[in-house]
Amino acid sequence: MAPNESDDTTGAAEVEDLRDGRRKAARYVVPVAVVGVAAATIGLVPALAASGDPDLPKITAEQLIQKIAKSDVQQLSGTVRVNTDLGLPNLGGLESSLASGMAKGGGHGSSADPTSKLTELAAGTHTLRVAADGPDRQKLSLLESGAEYSLIHDGKNVWGYDSQSNAVYHGTAADHGQDRKVSATPKDFADQALKSVDDTTSVTVDGTVQVAGRDAYKLLIKPRQSGTTVGAISIAVDAKTGLPLKFTLTPSSGGAAVVDAGFTQVSFAKPSASTFNFTPPKGAKVTEDDKTPSKAAGKGSPRGFDKGFGKGAPKPGDKAGRGFEVLGKGWNSIATFDTGSKGGLPSASGSGGGDLGGFLGSLGDQVSGKFGKGTVFSTRLVNALFTDNGKVYVGAVDKSALVKAANAAK
Question: pTM (2 decimals)?
Answer without folding.
Answer: 0.74
